[in-house]
């Protein structure tokens, strides 16, 4: 259950960060399309690294569950 809560939190947090960055670009005077592209490019690495971290933790949780069933 804790894993689901953490995963949901990471995904929501990434969405908020990207949205804030795009909004900052819009306030700077960019048009909508360009702000979306530029804002997403700037945050891309952070979102990908968070997604990889999420994948690693998720697979670790699954593996721990399997090991817990095999070795009591």
Describe what is shown at a glance.
The chain is mostly helical and about 70 residues long.
Explain what the structure shows.
The chain has 72 residues and is mostly helical. The chain has helices at 2-27, 32-70. The chain has one domain (2-70). It has two helices and no strands. Helix 1 (2-27) runs antiparallel to helix 2. It is elongated. The two termini are 21 Å apart.
Order of helices and strands: HH
Shape summary: elongated
What is the structural class? Answer: mainly alpha
Radius of gyration equals: 17 Å
Total number of helices: 2
Distance between the termini: 21 Å
Domain tally: 1
Major β-sheet, in short? Answer: none
